[in-house]
Amino acid sequence: MAKALYNLCKRNGTVMEYSITGSEVAELISCKKQDVYNSASYGQMIRKEFYVEVVDRPLSRTKDLTLLLEYDRVCREILERCG
Contact 54/8 with Cβ under 8 angstroms? Predict the structure, then answer.
């Protein structure tokens, strides 16, 4: 199963780490995974000095059908042009 990726940011907006998983964030700043998910979902600060931003999330077949269909169309077009 694919995991969402987050940027770990300081309170002043400086990004400390780019594109890491929730587990990695929790390990890096010694907090609970639930704190990471609350920060991403509700904008809560973690230990009053950090927050996370969702930068990538897994695709859902039902929610992202248009995007998946466009990806499929482009892939087929590239394959046809290349041989």
Answer: no
